[in-house]
């Protein structure tokens, strides 16, 4: 599950539009019960969109410029274009690590990353090599290390509210 927050905001906005259209349709049909039900759902979706935007504003901010290709950059590109790109095996490995971290919620310990990587690829990644790769990825700003706890990495910058939750969780 490597979708961006904006993907889900767009989905919620589409649902708002749909609910409003259906409520207008049933208003024309003089079916007040169904029209009201669609209006209520539209309002719930509006509240959800507002909640997402307020609580994920950091994630919705424009991305910092980067010279490195990310998995989102190549998503949904035609194969002809992918063949033209200079994507190495190391880059593909980076993308799989990012996908593994995203599959467990976007923030994970090295142990969790090893497990998620195995579930994703059915390959066992050497712990020392993974640690070195995670460090290099964090230097490139492809990943972010936890500011107060070693061995915790995230696919997005870690804000202070997230650090408290991880510090108190000693799994």
Provide a compact summary of the structure.
By secondary structure, the chain is mainly α. Helices cover 64% and strands 5% of the residues. A 3-stranded antiparallel beta sheet has the order 1-3-2.
What features would you describe in this structure?
The protein folds into 2 domains: 5-60; 71-167, Winged helix-like DNA-binding domain superfamily/Winged helix DNA-binding domain (Arc Repressor Mutant, subunit A, Orthogonal Bundle), CATH 1.10.10.10. Helix content is 64%, strand content 5%. The chain is built from 9 helices and 3 strands. A 3-stranded antiparallel β-sheet has the order 1-3-2. The protein is elongated. The model is unreliable at 58-62 and 167-171 (pLDDT under 50).
Mean pLDDT: 84
Q: Give the C-level CATH assignment of the largest domain.
A: Mainly Alpha
CATH topology of the largest domain: Arc Repressor Mutant, subunit A
Q: What is the terminal separation in angstroms? A: 23 Å
Instruction: Please identify the structural class as seen in this structure.
Output: mainly alpha
Number of spatially distinct domains = 2
Strand order of the largest sheet: 1-3-2
Radius of gyration: 21 Å
The best one-word shape is elongated
The strand count comes to: 3
The ordered string of helix (H) and strand (E) elements is HHHHHHEHHEEH
Strand residue content: under 5%
Contiguous runs where pLDDT drops below 50 for at least 5 residues: 58-62, 167-171
The biggest beta sheet is recorded as:
3 strands, antiparallel
Question: What's the CATH architecture of the largest domain?
Answer: Orthogonal Bundle
Q: Helical content, roughly?
A: 55-70%
In CATH, what is the homologous superfamily of the largest domain? Winged helix-like DNA-binding domain superfamily/Winged helix DNA-binding domain
Number of contiguous helices:
9
């Amino acid at each position: 599950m490597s979708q961006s927050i904006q993907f889900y905001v767009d989905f919620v906005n589409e649902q708002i539009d749909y609910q409003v259209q259906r409520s207008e349709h049933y208003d024309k049909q003089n079916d007040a019960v169904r029209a009201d039900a669609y209006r209520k759902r539209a309002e719930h979706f509006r509240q959800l969109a507002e909640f997402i935007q307020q609580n994920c504003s950091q994630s919705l901010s424009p991305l910092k410029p980067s010279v490195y290709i990310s998995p989102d950059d190549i998503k949904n590109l035609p194969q002809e274009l992918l063949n033209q790109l200079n994507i190495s095996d190391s880059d593909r490995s980076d993308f799989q690590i990012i996908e593994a971290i995203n599959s467990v919620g976007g923030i994970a310990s090295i142990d969790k990353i090893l497990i998620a990587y195995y579930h994703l690829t059915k390959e066992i990644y050497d712990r020392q090599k993974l640690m070195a790769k995670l460090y290099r990825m964090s230097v490139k700003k492809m990943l972010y290390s936890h500011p107060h706890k070693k061995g915790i990495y995230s696919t997005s910058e870690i804000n202070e509210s997230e650090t408290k939750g991880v510090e108190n969780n000693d799994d």
